[in-house]
Amino acid sequence: MVMHYYVDIRPHHKHQVHREGCTIIPSIQYLQYLGMFETSDKAVAMARVVYEHATGCKKCAKPHTAKKTT
Ligand SMILES: [Zn+2]
What we know:
Strand order of the largest sheet: 3-1-2-4
Bound molecules: zinc ion
Distance between the termini: 21 Å
Number of helices: 1
Oligomer: single chain
Radius of gyration: 11 Å
Helix content: 10-25%
Number of domains: 1
Number of strands: 4
Structural class: alpha+beta
């Protein structure tokens, strides 16, 4: 499933990659749009072009096969 992905650009935060609709995604002014990707891994790879230490958000950037436990 293709989703829109964003990276947190705040300087003193981890550069977490969020998926559209994430419940803990920061305000839009703190986000940079990455593009549409099939997996969060691809989105994180794109974010790492700019932010070397970018990581996937624990809340939303799980593999799509993972089941929701909440
Ligand atoms: Zn998230």
